[in-house]
Amino acid sequence: MPTVLRVGPYRFFFYSADRNERPHVHVERDSNVAKFWLNPVRLVDSGRMSRLEIRRLQRILTSNRERLLRSWDEFFSV
Question: For a FRET experiment, which of 10, 14, 16, 21 has its CA 20 to 30 Å from that of 78?
Answer without folding.
Answer: 10
